[in-house]
From TrEMBL:
The lineage of its organism: Eukaryota, Metazoa, Ecdysozoa, Arthropoda, Crustacea. Residues 1-191 form the GH16 domain. InterPro entries: Beta-glucanase-like, ConA-like_dom_sf, Glycosyl_Hydrlase_16. PANTHER family: GLYCOSIDE HYDROLASE FAMILY 16 PROTEIN (PTHR10963:SF55), GLYCOSYL HYDROLASE-RELATED (PTHR10963). Gene3D superfamilies: 2.60.120.200. One of its GO terms (biological process) is carbohydrate metabolic process. It holds the Pfam family Glyco_hydro_16. This is Beta-1,3-glucanase. GO terms for molecular function: hydrolase activity, hydrolyzing O-glycosyl compounds. It comes from the Eukaryota. Belongs to the glycosyl hydrolase 16 family.
Amino acid sequence: WPGSGEIDIVESRGNDNYGDIGNQAGGSTLHWGPHWPLNFYGMTTSQYTANDGSFANSFHTWRIDWTSTSMLFYVDDALVMTVDPGSSFWDYSGLGDQYDNPWVAGDKMAPFDQKFYFILNLAVGGTNGFFPDEVTADPPKPWANTSPQAFLDFWNGRGDWLPSWEQGEGRISENAALQVDYVKVWKMESIEQ
C-alpha cells in the first residue's frame, strides 16, 4: 500500500461537534503511489460539505463513473472530482525515473485497472491526523495524536463522547451508526450508457 491503490468513495467523521470538519464534511479519495510513504492522494482527493447541513441528517448518494480513461466522483448528483491521469498515473505523479514504476505492465489507469473493493469510511477516531488536535470542539477531543496511549485516552474520555452516540435501551442506538440503504454496481463500457 499504496502501490495497489485504494478507492475511498466517502470519508467522513461521525461527530456532530467537531468544528467545521464533523459530520457535515466529507471527502472522496484515491490513494496511490509506488510504495509508502509516497502516496499521491493529495492529487486525487476532493472535500465537500452536505447540502442539508450534515451527512447524518438523511441518506445521500455517492457515485463513481469509472472508465478505462477516468473516474468521476459525485455526491447527490453533483460532480465533486474528476480524475484523468493523462497518459498514466505514473506520469501524473511526476516521479519520472527516480523510482521503479510498479505499474509499467498496466494500462493508463493502473493501479486502478483491476477489480477493487470500495471503502465507505465513517471515522470515529485515530492518530493519523484525520482528527487534528488543533480543532476546537465541545467537548474537546479526549486524545492527542502523539499520545502513546491515545486509545486509552479515548476510552477514558467516554463520559464526554459516548452520550453523543445516541444511546438507547442500554446500548448504542442505530442512529449512531453508518447506515447504508443500498450499494449498486454496474459494469459499463462507457459513461454514455
